[in-house]
């Protein structure tokens, strides 16, 4: 099989999935581009069950994409490490959309290299999202976190997701955010101290699990009480009316309104459209 050059990674990912890999048309609605210096992951919580990245990894493996020779098995991809250095235009990068930067198998020396690239490119902004909050805290708690990092954890349920917030809130990054997607149950009362941004969304795909409107409204009300920016991304495959259909048809309105708020620091740094 012909090996695919990594310099074409975004073009090919966009070809495999037209909604991935470019600004504006990006599948991840709150970022611009992705940077994947590693690939592959391991399922560790309920939210991982229907992982979109796993499905895409198998498709990328089939076309010979570098980094996916073993499907979704974790591996570093050094040929992509310096990609942000080649881009002068200030860009918001989502780091490791196809992996987890704090995966247990991530070598610490390679993790150091990733953070060195971030420090060398202050014109860019890096969104780092993880489910491995323990390693994130262990690695970052004794370091000065670069100002161009937005740091977040995934919160999918109470048992596995909420404890991650406690690790995040005790780190000092420019923006601390929660990605509550897929939201799998009522999170009840949350401690949102030090959190700047909460992003909520339902699950997509034919095996998606439904999300109740009450769960979302509960989070929105808590954000309003605490003065935290609330961003509702989508209903996903199951609509507000509990009918299963194409996610585009279900849309992103909550109580008749689109909620796409941003923290003040982001509003000041970017012209948010």
Describe this structure in words.
The protein is α/β, with parallel strands linked by helices. The chain is built from eight helices and eleven strands. The strands form three sheets. Strands 1-4-5-6-7-8-9 form a seven-stranded parallel beta sheet. The chain has a two-stranded antiparallel ribbon with strand order 2-3. A two-stranded antiparallel ribbon has the order 10-11. The longest helix has 14 residues, at 213-226. Mean pLDDT is 89; it is low at 1-28.
Write the layout of secondary structure elements.
Elements: H1 9-16, E1 33-35, E2 38-39, H2 52-62, E3 75-76, E4 92-95, H3 108-120, E5 125-130, H4 133-140, E6 149-154, H5 158-169, E7 175-180, E8 197-201, H6 213-226, E9 229-234, H7 247-250, E10 253-254, E11 257-258, H8 264-269
**What integer is the average pLDDT?**
89
What is the CA–CA distance across the termini?
A: 42 Å
**Strand order of the biggest β-sheet:** 1-4-5-6-7-8-9
Provide the domain count: 1
Quick recap of the structure?
The protein is of the alpha/beta class and 273 residues long. The chain has helices at residues 9-16, 52-62, 108-120, 133-140, 158-169, 213-226, 247-250, 264-269, and strands spanning 33-35, 38-39, 75-76, 92-95, 125-130, 149-154, 175-180, 197-201, 229-234, 253-254, 257-258. It is globular.
What are the key terms here?
273 residues, alpha/beta, 7-stranded parallel β-sheet, disordered N terminus
